[in-house]
Amino acid sequence: MILVPGWMWQRGPVSRAVGVGLAAGFFFGAFVLVEAMSWVAAAVVFVVLGLLYGIRVARRMARIWPAAKDMNGVDRAAVVRATRRGEAVGDPRLAPAVVEYAGALRRTAEEDRLGRWVVLLVTALAVALAVYDTAMSTTGETIASWLVVVLLLADLMWWPRRRAVLLARADRAEASARRMTDAG
User: Fold this and answer.
1) Membrane-spanning residues where (predicted)?
2) Count of domains for the chain
């Protein structure tokens, strides 16, 4: 949910699931294509992971921020945009939604923090697999393995800082929304 940009929130739940699912399916399908050189396998991964991931993200978004379903797309996107940027929302009637969305971001970050050890473990395993593939496998498998290692290392180094910036901005937007609510 933290990675879903504001313009995706403008859409309905099915459209958000399709958008996120298509992106994930394409990404993972491309890896399978590079590694296995099989269009059939890439298509299967595209469809299966795209469906599963799209549905999972849409359900998680609805669970974490249930008030979003009662808002229209333009208002939902405005709340998400203002909160992610750390800005005051222009419309005072949206201030309570900014507070709710900022809380949803914090809850999501806390849930995701528990999975960081899993990412660390998967990264260690991916390095071992990439070393093995370098010595024993085809060029495509080696490239795919090292790309996974690079992406996992980037996630371990980049994402915690980016998440901290996003949460600090959400805190600023929430404080501004609370002031707006108190003044109104």
Assistant:
1) 20-53, 114-131, 143-159
2) 1
Question: Which tokens go with 122?
Answer: 């998967």
pTM here is 0.80
The DSSP code sequence of 131-175 is HHHHHHS-HHHHHHHHHHHHHHHHHHHHHHHHHHHHHHHHHHHHH
Measured CA to CA, the distance from residue 60 to residue 183 in angstroms comes to 33
Q: Residue 85 falls within a domain, yes or no?
A: yes
Tens digits of pLDDT across the chain (184 residues): 667 777 777 888 888 889 889 988 998 898 888 877 889 999 999 999 999 989 998 888 888 889 888 999 889 989 999 999 999 998 899 999 999 999 999 998 888 877 788 889 999 999 999 999 999 988 888 988 899 899 889 888 988 899 999 999 999 999 999 998 887 5
- Is 1 a member of any domain? no
